[in-house]
Amino acid sequence: MSLRVDVPGRSTGVRRFSRAERWVHRTTAALMGVCVVTAACLYVPQLAELVGRRELVVRVHEWAGLALPVPVLAGLASRAFRADLGHLNRFGSHDRVWLSAAFRRDKRAASRPAGKFNAGQKIYAAWIAGATLVMLGTGLMMWFTHLAPLVWRTSATFVHDWLALTVGIVLAGHIGMALGDPEARRGMRTGSVSREWAEREHSLWRR
């Protein structure tokens, strides 16, 4: 069913995200941002000296990381959010076509067929979800030292630190791509996008 809404200054648009979905994204982004900033303050000497109060930074980092899965778990109460998780978890033949075009750096919309989410967004969502779970598990072993023997905690610290660096790089790429697509940002901010954008970028999306 098509939901028609008015997008200020544009032709009739379509609803892309519900209010619950937008709040899940915003809250998760805020918590992830706190984790990244506090991690930088803990590991970059210049920032550590500038901020100080290491014990407080450690506690903020720990509690923000522990709370990271909460918005997603709360979002499961939303039917729209559960439906979008289903879209993100399904790959089709058109996703392989999209990835092939991306590897060839073919940016033509006709070469990159996509449903509500394109293949790149699906891969990013799966990766960041898995990385978050690994970060949570390794973080708990580092926080509660009685949970595992020393060799496990040492390995957990290694994985946690290097995965944190990778997460920071991937998030920077995600933010960079969002900055390059104002219509996608509008969809996440207001819940609606223009019909022209939807038909061009997500031609297989059944609205």
What features would you describe in this structure?
The protein has 207 residues and is mainly α. It is 70% helix and 5% strand. The chain contains 10 helices and 3 strands; from the N terminus they run E-E-H-H-H-H-H-H-H-H-H-E-H. A 3-stranded antiparallel β-sheet has the order 1-2-3.
Instruction: Give the radius of gyration.
Output: 20 Å
Distance, first to last CA: 6 Å
The gross shape turns out to be: elongated
Tell me the number of strands.
Answer: 3
Helix content: 55-70%
Count of DSSP H/I helices = 10
Return residue spans where pLDDT drops below 50 for at least 5 consecutive residues. Answer: 1-11
The biggest beta sheet, please?
A: 3 strands, antiparallel
In round numbers, the mean pLDDT is: 89
Q: Helices and strands: which structural class?
A: mainly alpha
InterPro entries: Cyt_b561_bac/Ni-Hgenase (IPR011577), Di-haem_cyt_TM (IPR016174), FDH_cytochrome_b556_subunit (IPR051817)
Keywords: Cell membrane, Membrane, Transmembrane, Transmembrane helix
Membrane topology: Multi-pass membrane protein
Protein name: Cytochrome b/b6 domain-containing protein
